[in-house]
Write a structure and sequence with these properties.
The complex is a heterodimer of chains A (246) and B (437). With 246 residues, chain A is α/β, with parallel strands linked by helices. Chain A contains seven helices and twelve strands. In chain A, 36% of the residues lie in helices and 29% in strands. Chain A has a six-stranded mixed beta sheet, with helices on both faces. Chain A has a four-stranded antiparallel beta sheet with strand order 2-1-4-5, covered by helices on one side. In chain A, strands 7-8 form a two-stranded antiparallel ribbon. Chain B folds into two domains: 271 residues, no CATH class; 57 residues, no CATH class. Classes of the chains: A alpha/beta (246), B alpha/beta (437). Chains A and B meet through helix 2, strand 7 and helix 3 of A and helix 8 and helix 9 of B.
């Protein structure tokens, strides 16, 4: 589904990603762990198409085609979704309107009819309930005044509604207490199936007790230095990145 | 004096004919206006309050004053399309400065309410006009108010007796039909004690290159509830200068929204005098600029008495090479203790060549007040744009949505739904025209 080949990326002339190779097949959950500044978030943003980063070498293939030339919205409609580490507050744009507009753009790309307000409401109500999101959220501005946990749950709600093929979760667990994290993890696990690929980026092993990965990668200084099974996460937790990197 | 002669010549021509039939007090008021205009002339950039707004383009043209009204084929339906329509509204149309009965539609009004052309009111009900007309405007420091007063002839009178509520909005349409025409419309609203009304003012043009020089006076008695909204949707080549004076008494609630969408050069002076206790006053505004449009808003709120609350929100969106000017003056008298005044002005610049000069001005002479002001000038937040795009919303739509959200905060203040709908659709067409990259 996703194939990253020798990916190099830089920002303002500074190299951040220095040759990443990674492939994610449908149905797999990959965890990417690494210390601060290792390039985890950069990788997520480059996959989503953020143009502040420049890809200097390598390629990203999604379902066999390069997406490097695709705008963020083109990647989104193809089925790539990134849950933001710091979801953006957008005053004045109602959550419901935002999500309906996004969903209908994606439906249009899939050749489906746009959903009207009623159908949309039916669709999200159930998903909101599962994520313990109060219905009043839909009438509030996107992420404005939301707590950290509410913002992260809102990201997962968007993911559930937009139904992507590949989800990238950028430190979705950071700043969450254990209860909020369980809600988020349950939301993610509910979306796991044989057709979907997931990349879970995290600094802490804790999340991986709840979202159990198939593959764990260790990212240090812009390169994947080690790849293993879920037990690699535990190893990192007990020995630290320096030890594993050695 | 350059530019002034055209007006003094016209004045001399109509003084004994058109103006000669007016009551003596009005003739004197006009002469006072003319004298004051001659004394001041057109403002220059040296004039503090006109520091950023050049009126040379207005000064240099010999606009024509229309002496008599003749229907010219413009229909009521066209007026509806140019503004907005709701058959429930009372509509009174002033075309080229004169009352246009065939374009107007005034329904049944509560007993005692007088809604008529100002010229008719001066002829038939001068006692309703004389005590108020020109009482609260400043001829000495604003040459355009002086000029309007010199040519004071027609416009609209809305007189609401005490305790009377007008349920349906009163829509005053000021339309210029002829190219090169100057109009000096005067609107007088006298709201009696505990009365209530919604007043809408629309400025539109069916031709190019005209000059609207308007003055609106609102006298709001004790405990009245007046909601006012002005839409300036003039032709893109027009000049629009307008002064609005609201004189508000105790416990009254006054709100006014000011939308500047059209005209090549526009200048609004929006002034409210809070002359009693317990007043609640809201003044909001939204301006959209594109190409070389110049939009100047000067607002002034004077708190003269204690325990009043004023809130002001002005927002601007500037594209192309447009330029905005905002000056927000809050003046708190020594006696006006417990004043609560808040002013916010925010401007979004959509191009590198758009400019804004913004200056809040607070003068506070009381020592127990709460006064705040905030001004921001910024560009669209690229993080928000990326966030939306990453959810599948395309770049242009994401940017439009963000500008829309910014501007909608002011549009939402409008209480009349047909006005909100018109503004929303104008905003969307403005976005696709001015901001499609």
């Amino acid at each position: 589904m996703l194939e990253i080949k020798n990916l190099h990326a830089s920002i303002e002339g500074k190299n951040i990603l220095k040759g990443i190779n990674l492939s994610v097949a449908a149905g797999e959950v990959h965890a990417i762990m690494g210390p601060n500044g290792s390039g985890k978030s950069t990788l997520a943003q480059v996959l989503a198409g953020r143009d502040t980063f420049e890809v200097t070498e390598g390629d990203i293939l999604f379902e066999g085609e390069s997406i490097l030339e695709n705008a963020p919205e083109e990647r989104a409609v193809k089925g790539i979704f990134m849950a933001f580490q710091y979801p953006v507050e957008i005053p004045g744009v109602r959550n419901a309107y935002f999500l309906k507009t996004a969903l209908n753009s994606i439906r249009k790309h899939r050749g489906e009819e746009p959903l009207d307000a009623m159908d949309f409401l039916v669709l999200i109500k159930e998903k909101m309930k599962a994520l313990k999101i109060d219905e009043s959220f839909m009438n509030r501005s996107v992420n404005e005044g939301f707590s950290g946990g509410e913002k992260k749950r809102n990201e997962i709600l968007q993911m559930a509604v937009l139904d992507p093929k590949l989800s990238i979760m950028d430190e979705t667990d950071s700043g969450l207490d254990i209860d909020a994290m369980k809600v988020v993890a349950d939301g993610v696990n509910a979306l796991r199936d044989e057709k979907r690929g997931m990349i879970v980026i995290t600094h802490y092993q804790r999340l991986l007790n709840y979202i159990v990965p198939d593959v764990v990668h260790v990212l240090v200084d812009g390169k994947i230095i080690k790849t293993g099974g879920k037990e690699l996460a535990l190893e990192l937790e007990s020995e630290g990145y320096t030890e594993v990197a050695r | 004096m350059p530019g002034v002669d055209n007006y003094t010549d016209t004045f001399e021509r109509v003084a004994s004919t058109l103006f000669g039939q007016s009551p003596e007090w009005l003739q004197k008021l006009r002469e006072k206006g003319l004298e004051s205009f001659k004394l001041q002339g057109f403002p220059t950039l040296r004039n503090e309050s006109w520091r950023f707004t050049r009126t040379k383009a207005i000064q240099e043209r010999d606009f024509t004053f229309v002496e008599a009204y003749k229907p010219n084929g413009l229909t009521a339906d066209q007026i509806a399309t140019m503004t907005f329509d709701d058959t429930g509204h009372h509509r009174i149309v002033i075309a080229d400065g004169h009352f246009a009965p065939e374009l107007s539609r005034v329904g049944t009004l509560p007993e005692g309410v007088v809604l008529m052309s100002l010229a008719d009111a001066l002829a038939t009900r001068p006692e309703l006009v004389e005590p108020y007309l020109g009482q609260h405007v400043d001829l000495e420091s604003n040459p355009f108010v002086a000029l309007n007063t010199a040519f004071l002839y027609d416009g609209v009178l809305l007189h609401i007796p005490r305790n009377v509520v007008i349920t349906d909005p009163v829509h005053i349409v000021l339309v210029s039909r002829g190219s090169g025409v100057v109009t000096h419309p005067r609107i007088l609203v006298v709201a009696g004690e505990s009365s209530e009304a919604t007043i809408l003012e629309s400025y539109v043009g069916a031709s190019a290159g005209y000059f609207t020089n308007a003055v609106t006076e609102l006298v709001c008695a004790e405990n009245s509830r007046i909601s006012h909204c002005k839409l300036q949707m003039e032709h893109e080549s027009a000049f629009h200068i307008a002064t609005q004076e609201a004189h508000i008494s105790s416990n009254a609630r006054f709100s006014t929204e000011n939308f500047s969408l059209g005209a090549a050069i526009s200048r609004n002076d929006v002034n409210s005098y809070l002359g009693g206790q317990g007043i609640d006053c809201r003044m909001d505004g939204l301006y959209l600029g594109d190409d070389r449009q110049h939009i100047d808003n000067h607002t002034r709120i004077r708190h003269a008495e204690p325990h009043c609350h004023s809130f002001e929100l002005y927002k601007g969106v500037l594209a192309g090479k447009s330029r905005g000017v905002f000056n927000g003056h809050i003046y708190v008298d020594q006696d006006a203790q417990k004043t609560d005044a808040k002013q916010e002005n925010r401007c979004l610049l959509l191009s590198d060549d758009a400019r804004i000069n913004t200056s809040p001005q607070l003068e506070i002479f009381a020592d127990d007040v709460k006064c705040t002001h905030g001004a921001t000038v910024g560009q669209l937040d690229e993080n928000s744009v990326f966030y939306m795009r990453s959810r599948g919303i395309d770049r242009v739509e994401a940017r439009h949505l963000l500008v829309y959200a910014f501007a909608a905060e002011v549009i939402e203040r409008v209480k009349v739904s047909s006005v909100r709908e018109r503004l929303e659709s104008d905003l969307f067409s403005w976005l696709s025209r001015s901001f499609s990259t």
